[in-house]
Amino acid sequence: MDPNRPPVPPGAARMPWLPPAAGRGFMIDPPPLGRARGLALAAAEPETGRGRGRASAAASEPPVSPFGRGISLPVPEAQVGIARGMLPPVEEKGLGRARGSLSTSLEPQVGMGRGASLFMEPLAEPVPPVKSQMLQLPEAVSGLQEERVEEKKTPEKFEVDIPDPGSSLVSMIRELGIEPSKSWGRGAAPMGRGSVGGLAAAHQSLVSSVGFSSVGAEEPFPEGMTLRGTSFVGRGMVGAGRAPVSPVGFSRGPIASPELPPGPITPPPVSVALAGPPPVPVETTVAPVKVEAAREPLKKAGTKGNSITIGSNYIPIRCKNEAVFQYHVTFTPNVEALSMRFGMMKDHRSTTGEVVAFDGSILYLPKRLDEVVHLKAERKTDNQEIDIKIQMTKVLPPHCDLCIPFYNVVLRRVMKIVGLKLVGRDHYDPSNAIVLGKHRLQVWPGYSTCIKETDGGLYLGVDVSHKVLRNDSVLNIMGVIYQQSPEHFQDECTKEFVGAIVITRYNNRTYRIDDIKWSKSPKDSFTLADGSETTFIDYYRKNYGITVKEIDQPLLVHRPKERSKPGGKQIITGEILLLPELSFMTGIPEKMRKDFRAMKDLTVHINVSAEQHTHSIKQLLQNINSNPEALNELQRWGLEISPEILMTQGRTLPMETICLQSASFVSSSSADWSREVVRDASISSIPLYCWAVFYPRRAAEQAEELVTMFGKVAGPIGIKLERPIRVELRDDRTETYVKSIQSQLTSEPNVQLVVCIITGNRDDLYSAIKKLCCVQSPCPSQAINVRTISQPQKLRSIAQKILLQMNCKLGGELWTVSVPLKHLMVIGVDVHHDVSKKKRSVMGFVASLNSLLTRWYSRVTFQMPNEEIINGFRVCLLAALQKYYEMNHSFPEKIVIYRDGVSDGQLKTVEQYEIPQILKCFETFPNYEPKLTFIVVQKRISTTLYSYGGERFGTPPPGTVLDHTVTNKDWVDFFLMAHSIRQGCGLPTHYISVYNTANLTPDHLQRLTFKMCHLYWNWPGTIRVPAPCKYAHKLAFLSGQYLHSEPAIQLADKLYFL
Amino acid sequence: MCRNGSDRMAALFSPPLYLQRYQFVIEYVKRFIPRKVIDLGCADCGLLRKLKFHRNAIEVLAGVDIDCAALRERVNALAPLTIDYLQPSPRPLTIELYQGSVTEREPCTQGFDLVTCMELIEHLQLWEVEGFSNVVFGYMNPCAVIISTPNVEFNPLLPGLRGFRNKDHKFEWTRAEFQTWALGVCMEYGYSVEFTGVGVAPGQNRDVGFCTQIAVFQRDAGVSNGPVNNAVQMEPTVYRLLYRVVYPSLCDNNIFQRTLVCQVLYRAESLKREFELGEQSMQSDLTACAHSLPPDVVAGSTVVYRHRSHVFVPLQHVWTDPKVQALCGNIHRLRQALMDDSRVQLDTDRDAIILPDEGEEEEDEEETGECEEGNLTPSPVIDNSEEDWETEIG
């Protein structure tokens, strides 16, 4: 240990700024607290683990603050005070102590490991000795792991507290001067989330920066503080805790962005922060420490394939500020009302400067104040003089996680400054609106932007987005509906409006319509916040000068999710009533969605090419960087947005060999083998001896031609095909189809396949046929729209496709690629949510059964809205394992699960809750411990990849992978674009390896995933997601949308749902 | 506008006093319909945010404050709403914010119809008040001025109040003091004044007067001497322009044209659809089939008709749409407006709108992703099928 520890230097010269009391600080007096927290110290003192343990013990105590809000608590409560970084009363003693701890940090970089790169200790020593610290002794590691366990325990607590920081963030935003014009009921959550992590980390950091001078707070309640920090597992800190583990082979934890040029993250800022005004010597010594603190990055970079230059819609951001300073503000005597606190702080702008982020007790400034500043204010209500104490608690590097929420606030303001309008969550440009007069709607081009920290550092993510707004008020549309169907007026309105998002005439908020109150009208009255009653008519006249023209209109109901208002004063509950006359619809009208031609008018504008995409982004950057006001706004927090989008190196993975029965070929660079699959025999084909074709009389001709064509094309594919039983229906009513199929299936139980030729797009008919053939009388079925087989010149290729599809449904196998892993099972999971939300959600589950990955076992489970998906998952998994055993007489040794539809915020839940349950599932079988890799698949992401060549942006080729720079700090992840793009932009899929005991390397993960994207048999080419996910999606969609119940188990080993 | 006292007075007044002051101004605006309004000491633009909804009166709304930070704070709340773009108002609105002192003369502040000055003068030093009067009444010389200030006689009723209502107040006047000053101003600059207020004292204490006293000044008729600047937006010379936004309105020709064309096309398209439906249902009826008739026979008629592959919708028909009427006033103006618009195609007589007959485009149906492009050159990277990941995992 000792060699790792830098000698303790006399140090005094280094701390010129310390007040006299600091003298004491030089005593090497390692306070117990320091021990409990400081990681590096822990190495010296095996107690660390215990320190943690204590913290967790504290966690089980009840001290979840009764003061839900994060107001700084009056002194007595401070015992409980974990709720926020409390300023405990002990300043006097605390100061001295804190200084003491400062000097202790001259020891081995207290807290370095933990505090991550964020918090610099006044490291007295030059680097080299420190360097080895990271490879700390096992004790340190075990301590960490213990901490980790603890984190797993705490989530409940952290749930409870979420609202507080969330709302305080909103108020912080308020303070920043931006009205949080969010849609009620939506939108607030992500912000809150961020802030939870952020603020929690703040407290944590408060404590963890043992070395910092003024943390008087630590002394009295160290456990409490610790608990706080760790329980908000959220981000930063936790990851930091884990990071050191990774050298030992554990692959988690954030990266201190090694790719980053030394510029932004290097610590000089910190050193300055620590050293205050004239700090020359310290500066040099501190800098290297930072490097030491850089944790081992996660190993997520692969090497296979060819390098390719690609761009992405990320814009590097540079932080010029040296640091962001965090202060704790105490009001004595205490001031309860947040608004009053804000007001008092506002009156002291001369001291704090104009650039402020304040949530009521924690204050962030880009400038350094004196260590402790006392200000005076007068409480208006009782003329009490209030002492405001602003105490510095933390010096943050400017790219710190905690700062990102205000950077995003600043960004929103910048977007407004450059003339964009906030609609919902994104910003749009009304001056370039595309007006589709014919459809009475406008398309506003715009951007969805967000500042985030990735492996490569701080980036502005920009996605080009479009907002569809309608020119008509809800009342206008109601009028049209009434004209069209006066008898079903109310039903039609409900269908049209419920679930729609509206904006109003008098503010910029968006509301989701949850209901329509037919019994209400604008003449009715409601209660205002101050308790008085007013009618809607009066309210709008008085407040907005709006005269309501139609007095007899129903009211629209929006039911916001329960949450506290900004400032936490009251909980918003109940309903918000809106006037149809003053509400305007957004989004694409349902009717238009079904109208192919109308949609074409629209998609022309919405689907942009890579060239247009990058052009729009560059335009935005240009607008920002040429607008002095915008630049000034950014400058306030020292931000500088690069004028260029990110260019980096990705790779294209090696092409795969597609194997048919005997033929095999390397896929073309467009990843398309539609010609090959119809030329040679599929891996296996089920001979069709007995099958039936049902068609209405008027489609008799087409049916005959199709059957003839089947006969011609079946040979090369390798399918044996007998003449079908032909059933001509006298009409095309649903009932007729169902009855005929039913009687056919009863009279001829050996029917292998039902083919139905149907006229028009008829959901009800399709649904009836599928219900019959998938649930009641299990039999593979194929529905064919007569229009698709009506063009003779296309009939051949259509017939080939249908034939291949029918073969899959019967249990045939088309093609495969080689996966060099033995005893492997690949599982795909996707969930289909019913649009109306009232219905259950459906999970589709598909698992491979053989080593070729050509046999699939599928199951469906239905969940009630608040039921956990994992329960159904376990049932499916057990069934799949049993089936696998039946077929292979052994269980799979490796299981790779591709799980679609998990958002970033749910990754932790998956890791901490779902995966343990899956592992438990294996215990059902004696001595069975397979290796498991769990990969989350995210399709809806805002990342776009561009190829770049000849000064032009285009779409990257299939197989392009990007596994660095824009990847997530906390996970092993990568972006893969497997599909070939013929139109629009290169939208990759994001894969996150959440669990990997199979030890698949990044190369394996990436290539296995790419291989799986080749295996979707409904498409002779690569697709966006791994085939099992796509199968699971298809299955869930069919079951949720058409079957409304679980399909018959007899079909489970066939791809009947294709 | 000072809301500092609201904590103490919240209990006393409902709605809160500052809102009552806003409402007072709003009622005035509704009654007298001033076109140009300027708010001196607008602070966080609370009053401006309310006034901007009164589009039928106000065309220019300006705010002045000496505190730039306070101004910027809520500036975005003054920006047009989404809906202002979707349905542009027939009347213009420009909002401007200036940083500057009310004791300085700024040419941009001349020519206003109404100057409001809520809870401002008490923040001036007494000796500055005269300069203020001179600037507002003598220099800006608006048609009307509304000035409010605390009534110190009311203060004893405010619980726990010692001294002035706000630390920054330099003085607080009695009713007599305020009225003396106001009458003096009237004498000097040719105005007449009425006194009123908001915030009635509870119970028997009514004789102390309103909590906030308000003076409404009207310029005497015929004493108009201020230069009326109807001219295009001026740049301030003394003040600093912090913010200016021009609301989309039909007064902007481009917006007018766009709105009109949209409405006309929508109307024409729906007429065409009706016509096509009618055509289908009466396909056998030869007389309804207009396309054998030469165009000159039908021209000028008010029937929708088909000629070759186009459908002709007479302007007369489009004109029946009330929204089109509201936009154009008369059919000649409509014809004029559509004549030089490339988005609308008129027939030679300019009596009908020509729409393409889309019935024939129908076959252009969804082309489900069939890849018929030529084979691209196979990639040189060949998958090494001999690999074994098992050994790599170890």
From TrEMBL, chain B:
Keywords: Magnesium, Metal-binding, Methyltransferase, RNA-binding, RNA-mediated gene silencing, S-adenosyl-L-methionine, Transferase. Its cofactor is Mg(2+). It catalyses: small RNA 3'-end nucleotide + S-adenosyl-L-methionine = small RNA 3'-end 2'-O-methylnucleotide + S-adenosyl-L-homocysteine + H(+). It comes from the Eukaryota. GO terms for biological process: oocyte development; primary piRNA processing; regulation of RNA stability; RNA methylation; siRNA processing. Its EC number is 2.1.1.386. Residues 357-373, 384-394 have a biased composition (Acidic residues). Belongs to the methyltransferase superfamily. HEN1 family. This is Small RNA 2'-O-methyltransferase.
